[in-house]
């Protein structure tokens, strides 16, 4: 029973370490991707289109609310 508990403890520690290292790898990769100029440019385009769509929708809603009342 002691060997089983010791094995479980060692497995947990090694797994936790590997898990944390993998998490750090993923964070670094995410940061590299999001900091890339091409991704920044694409994100700006998407933000602009979303803003246009939202503002266009607000304008249409405001116009239709004023007509019926």
Describe the structure.
The protein is mostly helical. It has one domain (2-63). It is built from 2 helices and no strands. It has helices spanning 2-35, 37-67. The protein is elongated. The chain starts with a helix and ends with a helix. The mean pLDDT is 84. It comes from Pseudonocardia benzenivorans. This is YtxH-like protein.
Low-confidence stretches: none
Q: What shape does the CA trace take? A: elongated
Helix content: over 70%
Spatial extent as radius of gyration: 26 Å
Task: Work out the helix count.
Answer: 2
Helix/strand-derived category reads mainly alpha
Average of the residue pLDDT scores: 84
* Structural domain count: 1
First-last Cα distance: 79 Å
The tally of strands reads 0
User: Helix and strand string, N-terminal first?
Assistant: HH
What fraction of residues sit in β-strands?
under 5%
- Main β-sheet, in a few words? none
Notable characteristics:
69 residues, mainly alpha, 2 helices, elongated
Helix/strand layout:
Layout: H1 2-35, H2 37-67
Question: Outline of this structure?
Answer:
With 69 residues, the chain is mainly α.
């Amino acid at each position: 029973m002691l060997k089983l508990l010791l094995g479980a403890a060692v497995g947990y520690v090694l797994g936790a370490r590997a898990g944390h290292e993998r998490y750090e790898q993923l964070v670094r990769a995410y940061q590299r991707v999001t900091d890339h100029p091409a991704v920044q440019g694409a994100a700006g385009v998407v933000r602009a289109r979303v803003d246009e769509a939202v503002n266009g929708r607000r304008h249409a809603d405001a116009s239709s609310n004023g007509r019926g009342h």
